[in-house]
């Protein structure tokens, strides 16, 4: 007897929490795991007293599902997803829906969409953000893939997602093929940037202003009542004040060596691939790589010196406000860059992305959730064709209002020898973007001089010419190409 609305495969913490979340919203879920004993354990413990049903094989699971069958995979990205899809295909019928909720690479999702379409099955690749807590009480969901699947899963997805404002769900259809996983990848890249910016602010507070943990906790608590109101600022404040069992602050005891799972790196690689200057996320990834060279840094610290005797002598409260504004301006740049990458991918794959809806999906439930995303939604409501957030009146004014503070922070940090890869790359991008003329004319001349790569004249764009710079190089040019 088909009784379950949806099945979920993969009973790690995220999977279990999503099942309990769906159960809370009145959906009957069938749980399955490759190690079948886990299903029994889950039903006897976390899912005790719920309507969740278990399955002891994939055949058993499929037989318990209402038509069209809806199956969520929450297993390790990569081969494991393909293995399960291969096992499911022979058990399913045309119109059944497979949903991959893992952190899959968007190209894998594009490939799976194509293969399953040939088999008349519907595939959805959905980003899921918010960690364990989000999965349990309301994540941000970013589904993309075969649009025909959306009416069959919309009610479930929007019911279990986080809600903001007057109850708008942090979940909407993103676009075709790998659009959902691409948007999730950019979300994770932005998360890398946000965290690195917070770390740079912390470094300046600690080294330049010599603030103690409790002062920093208080500052972040105060900042969370301003434009910086966000989940990451809120939890940073909690981390600063957290004390270990010995009643000493825990943060200074933690080894300064960052790990990463790869989604930030994928974002940076996509940026290079599509020629989009997403510099801040790139620097955030490299900052993690540099942090992981702990032993080398310890060695280097014995011989490489920084600026001597440059102690901060300014007004502490004023400089703290400067740091806050530098953080805000840099964050605007990072999101502007992230949305540039989304726009470029949309062109590349002919996805019609709804940028305002994406900002709303990130407004709650996910790791980068913040009040600020509401402003991005408003910017795209004002102009759905907006080329860059920096061209929106609200954001251009915000960055311009912050720029004096931003420049002071970076120059002070540089004089004190504090690394600020994300603060400084954000300002470089801003300064590059607002320059009508950049020195790339010399770059083109150099390329033409040594490699006959040609250039365009300002008076005649689109027409490529070559100059015989030395008088003896000949006039044959290499074909022009875009780097």
Automatic annotation (TrEMBL):
Pathway field: Carbohydrate degradation; pentose phosphate pathway; D-ribulose 5-phosphate from D-glucose 6-phosphate (oxidative stage): step 3/3
Positions bound to substrate: 103, 129-131, 187-188, 192, 261, 288, 447, 453
InterPro entries with a match to the protein in the record: 6-PGluconate_DH-like_C_sf, 6PGD_dom2, 6PGDH_C, 6PGDH_Gnd/GntZ, 6PGDH_NADP-bd, 6PGdom_BS, NAD(P)-bd_dom_sf, Pgluconate_DH
Enzyme Commission code(s) on record: 1.1.1.44
Domain of life: Eukaryota
Record SMART domains: 6PGD
Residues binding NADP(+): 10-15, 33-35, 75-77, 103
Active site: 184, 191
Catalytic activity from the UniProt record: 6-phospho-D-gluconate + NADP(+) = D-ribulose 5-phosphate + CO2 + NADPH
Pfam families given in the database record: 6PGD, NAD_binding_2
Role this protein plays: Catalyzes the oxidative decarboxylation of 6-phosphogluconate to ribulose 5-phosphate and CO(2), with concomitant reduction of NADP to NADPH.
Family to which this protein belongs: Belongs to the 6-phosphogluconate dehydrogenase family.
Name by which UniProt lists this protein: 6-phosphogluconate dehydrogenase, decarboxylating
